[in-house]
Specification:
Elements: H1 2-39, E1 45-51, E2 55-56, H2 64-68, E3 75-76, H3 77-89, E4 93-100, H4 107-120, E5 126-134, H5 136-142, E6 147-156, H6 169-175, E7 178-184, H7 192-195, H8 201-225, H9 230-238, H10 246-251, E8 257-258, H11 261-271, E9 282-284, H12 285-291, E10 303-310, E11 313-314, E12 321-322, H13 323-335, E13 339-348, E14 350-352, H14 353-368, E15 372-382, H15 384-387, E16 394-397, E17 402-404, E18 408-414, H16 416-422, H17 447-472, H18 476-482, E19 487-489, H19 490-496, E20 501-502, H20 505-516, E21 522-526, H21 533-553, H22 557-567, E22 573-575
Parallel strand pairs: 1-4, 1-9, 2-3, 4-5, 5-6, 6-8, 10-13, 10-21, 11-12, 13-15, 15-16, 15-17, 16-20
Antiparallel strand pairs: 7-18, 14-22, 17-19
């Protein structure tokens, strides 16, 4: 109790210090923004987009350690797209300088960015890309540039796609913990790291299929942009081309030339007819947005809501998609006479099946008011992420979106061996009824308890697939045939009926506006950013704890968090296996 009290007051003091710094930063920001507004964007300016940090869907609270270490704030896809679209129509902007320094983002996020840049070029304006060392994701985006340059000592990472999954069964065996698993779906692989030493054949088959599809899209785009064939790109990826001498990248047509930073500056001066001794008019995208005219941001009677659902789906909490917060917000929009249409932007690998059902119901209430619901999928809209999407009138996904994973599972750890044999701790259990102590981690489930748990999982799967069948206007058996927990890429998802159209969030919004008969409209984003003191305190506490654990555990932190995450899960989950495609 004393520790909890001490932790509370320490968190409170930290929050006070952060708020003081935030207020000071806000004042400074207001002064800077004021000067930027006075300065305005000059004619002949270059928009600079630096790919050098994490790219998120939209702004989220910063990690306290990142704040203390003065780490750069993540970029948001929302603002990057706003800037590119505004610059396309802005006569003051003559081109884009894409400075590639190792951004971190999902494939669908990068594809959205690359497509926006390609659309920018239809205005007859140019894009120049430069990088010291291009990572593969940055190069994918940069390949659409009219001029692509590499540092004379740099490299280009082109090696195809891979995914790696840690398996914890060996560790659990050593410490004496057994995972009791209940699931529906041959391909529902989220439980595999806890019961297997390596990938199942079904998981490997599924992963190989969607990786091939993603690479066909990504490699094909690079090939098209660089005027190569996909076979040629595959040959280069197979030959460990990142380790070639820089001159080879030019010979192989992966780059247009080798230049140092000062030489790139001279190239930019030529493109803008800037005199050698004059300074270039370069403005960063975030500064540009202060003075830019953002499409569909002006007040209008025709309003379209864009509701962001990003992160793990939980019943309650301070981060991610929480039913406790999201459900009332959607119900409020259902009663809002100014909002007649909404795009749900989903970027989630799923989570609590119960929470997913509550959000699904709230969206059905929204539709019951005669309002139109579309869905736009980001990097992921899988399992619970698909559950909350399936009722939409129309679903949009990028070709590189991972979706589907229609399946349910539950896991209960049993640590009897750990306590009894390794720690020498025994438990005496007294109950009034047969299942009075279930579930618990000190003894394995009885056959009756296992049957009950599997029955709940089966009912959850029936409900999930029935929601999908109704939403997609397909027989439930057809949904089950493409369900089984299998993850699909966006292109295949469209072919099998899980998705209606390939495209970005902008495409979904434009399509919805056309459906509503809006020639002009205003986009309003939700949920609104509200500075709630207690939410800020809770977030700060969570972030402070995470930062301390990162410092203490180092390289073991991701493994710890993976185990911890499953320890705190609701009993029944609609979740895909967390994975990184790289």
């Amino acid at each position: 109790m004393l520790g909890a009290i001490a932790g509370f007051w320490i968190s409170l003091m930290l929050l006070f210090l952060v708020m003081v710094m935030a207020i000071a930063g806000s004042v400074a920001s207001m002064v800077l923004n004021s000067s930027e507004q006075d300065m305005k964007v000059e004619k002949g300016s270059i928009l600079r987009i630096s790919l050098d940090t994490q790219i998120e869907e939209r702004h989220s609270p910063r990690d306290i350690q990142a704040f203390i270490n003065e780490e750069p704030e993540p970029q948001t896809l929302e603002n990057l797209i706003y800037a590119i679209k505004a610059a396309k129509e802005d006569d003051r902007i003559v081109g884009i300088f894409l400075n590639c320094n190792g951004a971190s983002a999902g494939l669908a996020t990068r594809q959205t960015l690359a497509n926006a840049l390609t659309d920018f070029k239809t205005s007859k304006k140019w894009i120049l890309a430069y990088g010291d060392n291009y990572n593969q994701g940055d190069y994918y985006v940069a390949s659409c540039a009219d001029h692509l340059y590499l540092n004379p000592s740099g490299s280009i990472d082109l090696r195809g796609l891979a995914t790696s999954i840690p398996f914890f069964k060996g560790l659990l065996d050593k410490v004496g913990v057994t995972m009791q698993v209940y699931k529906v779906g041959t391909y529902k692989s989220a439980v595999e790291p806890f019961i297997l030493d390596n990938m199942s054949d079904a998981n490997r088959e599924m992963s190989q299929y969607f990786l091939n599809s993603l690479w066909k899209e990504m490699g094909g785009t690079i090939a098209k942009n660089r005027k190569l064939t996909l076979d040629k790109v595959n040959m280069l990826a197979d030959s460990l081309v990142p380790f070639d001498a820089p001159e080879q990248f030019v010979k192989l047509k992966l780059a247009d030339g080798l230049k140092y930073v000062d030489q790139v500056e001279e190239e930019l001066k030529k493109l803008t007819n800037t005199k050698k001794d004059d300074d270039l008019k370069i403005i960063d995208y975030d500064s540009y947005l202060v003075d830019a005219t953002i499409p569909h941001s002006q007040s209008n009677d025709n309003k379209i809501a864009v509701f962001y659902a990003v992160g793990d789906i939980t019943d309650a909490g301070v981060t991610g998609i929480t039913a406790e917060k999201m459900v009332p917000e959607i119900l409020d929009l259902a009663e809002d006479d100014d909002i007649k249409a909404m795009v749900l932007r989903v970027n989630s690998g799923g989570g609590s099946a119960f929470a997913s059902e509550q959000i699904w119901h709230a969206l059905e209430v929204f539709k019951s008011k005669g309002k139109t619901l579309y869905v736009s999928m980001g990097d992921y809209a899988a399992s619970g992420g698909y559950y909350i999407s399936c009722g939409a009138e129309r679903i949009f996904a990028e070709p590189t979106t991972l979706t589907g994973s229609i399946g349910i599972f539950g896991m209960i750890p049993c640590a009897k061996e750990l306590f009894n044999d390794k720690l020498g701790v025994n438990f005496g259990v007294v109950t009034t009824n047969a299942g009075g102590a279930f579930p618990n981690i000190i003894q394995p489930a009885t056959p009756a308890e296992s049957r009950a748990m599997q029955g709940a999982i089966n009912r959850g799967y029936e409900l999930f697939t029935s929601r999908c069948a109704t939403g997609r206007n397909m027989p439930q058996d057809s949904i089950k045939a493409i369900g089984e927990g299998r993850v699909w890429d966006g292109v295949t998802a469209k072919r099998i009926g899980l998705v209606d159209q390939l495209g970005s969030l902008d495409d979904a919004v434009a399509s919805l506006a056309k459906k509503m008969g809006y020639k002009d409209y205003q986009v309003i984003t939700y949920p609104e950013h509200k500075a709630n003191f207690w939410d800020m305190l809770a977030t700060l506490s969570v972030q402070a704890k995470a930062s301390a654990l990162k410092e203490e555990l180092g390289a073991y932190y991701p493994i710890y968090m993976e185990l911890k995450r499953f320890e705190n899960l609701e009993p029944i989950q609609a979740r895909m296996l967390p994975m990184t495609v790289h």
